[in-house]
Amino acid sequence: MRYLLKNGTIVSGDQMKKADVLIEDEKILETGPDLHDPEAVLVDVTGELLFPGFIDAHTHFQLEVSGTVTADDFDTGTRAAIKGGTTMVIDFATQYKGETLEEALENWHQRADNRSSCDYSFHMAISDWNKNTAESMEHMMEEGITSFKMYMTYPDMILNDHDIFMALRKMKEIGGITGVHCENSGMIDALTEEARNKGDLGADVHPKVRPEGAEAEAVNRLLAIAGEIGIPVIVVHLTCKEALDAVERARKKGQTVFAETCPQYLLLDSSLYETGEEGRNYICSPPLRKKENQKVLWEGLRNGTIQTVSTDHCSFTTKQKGFGRDDFTKTPNGMPGVETRGVLLYTYGVGKGLLTPQQMCRVLSENPAKLYGLYPKKGCIMPGSDADIAVIDPEREDVITAESQEQNVDYSPFEGTKIKGTIDKVFLRGCLVTDGGRVVKIKQGKFIKRGPHML
Ligand code: DUC
Ligand code: ZN
Ligand code: ZN
Ligand code: ZN
């Protein structure tokens, strides 16, 4: 199959170029002005922006959390992804205590294989450090699982400093890269206990028991450990100035540190926890922060101190969120977002003059592709690359509603949010999967083996 996309503007990390794009089968064959091909199906993209398909390097589909399972699995979650211009997700295969990494990987393949509508890979979340884990990490690299995840909080997944140190030392040997959820669990436990003793268990207390200092402390500690070993690490879902300051301090000392943030931290703030019942729907960890942090995060994206925007998509219905009706600690943590990242960044980043389209391309496509060993197969529109393209109509307006979403959730954290710049078409390895903003072809996703990180 051949497609010729006529009269669009190709966006890359450093330029915007008016050019046609010729796709043959799964690949970009050629880009340039005034291309012709009598065999190709013509697609008029006049006035539209062609971004390399967005990569969401932080999703949780079909994950067991707090005795329930996320509302989105790989079927619904990846449909939502392609509707939103995301052509690849990197989910977290999670090793439960007592399990091997091989078992965890097999488990996640079963969840994703033959059901996914965008391409996918997994980070391997290490929750149990032992001798076998070290050897299994090498196997993961052979399987194309070249990135790992560690949690500094959550009882089921937490690793202590000893284990983090040992795992990162092994990581250095095998050349893997690690994303870390940074929050100080001791502080959180103490503050939660205190709130419980006072009977103070409304959603408004959630951000108070997980303060910015708990995140910053964990970032500092992680970076001290990683610095001692001399290994780059990724601070995932960074939310606040204090945490970014810690990252910058480590960089000043010569450390390589990458940082990821998410749309909810850029656009929503902790006052949403004060909205009574509804406040529960915003419970995620780390929590939404005070509004003044948003400026710092946008500036971080603009000046390159934050490299990627992922979603931490971890969705629950309002019924599931309601498990915490009388006790916020029983509310499963997480929010939906895989569907809306691209249009939010375009509208509130590019549209408000906070980011250029090139910077948006970097944080949604190019940087995650490089950081997670996918570039230049993905993350760019160049001859030989996978024909993953998100076509944005920069003038078209829309409003985000739960009712119109593919995500399997009955609410949207961005309900009523106005959008200017919508996802018109999406190509996944040369297959038109979204057209006119609607998903038209599902289950075309493939598992993608990844190489070493290169950012
Ligand atoms: N935070 C969430 O809110 N949900 C899933 C995992 C996480 O770290
Ligand atoms: Zn082996
Ligand atoms: Zn996390
Ligand atoms: Zn997460």
UniProtKB/TrEMBL annotation:
Q: Which UniProt keywords apply?
A: Hydrolase, Metal-binding
Q: Does Membrane count among this protein's keywords?
A: no
List, separated by semicolons, the cofactors it needs. Zn(2+)
Q: What is its EC number?
A: 3.5.2.2
Any Pfam family from its record, for instance, is Amidohydro_1
Q: Where is the Amidohydrolase-related domain?
A: 50-431
Is the keyword Nucleotide-binding in the record? no
Q: Which domain of life is it from?
A: Bacteria
Modification after translation (UniProt): Carbamylation allows a single lysine to coordinate two divalent metal cations.
Please give the SUPFAM superfamilies that the UniProt record associates with this protein: Composite domain of metallo-dependent hydrolases, Metallo-dependent hydrolases
- One cellular component GO annotation, for this chain's record? cytosol
Stretches that traverse the bilayer: none
PANTHER family xrefs: COLLAPSIN RESPONSE MEDIATOR PROTEIN (PTHR11647:SF1), HYDRANTOINASE/DIHYDROPYRIMIDINASE FAMILY MEMBER (PTHR11647)
Give the family this protein belongs to, as stated in its UniProt record.
Belongs to the metallo-dependent hydrolases superfamily. Hydantoinase/dihydropyrimidinase family.
Report the protein name in the record: Dihydropyrimidinase
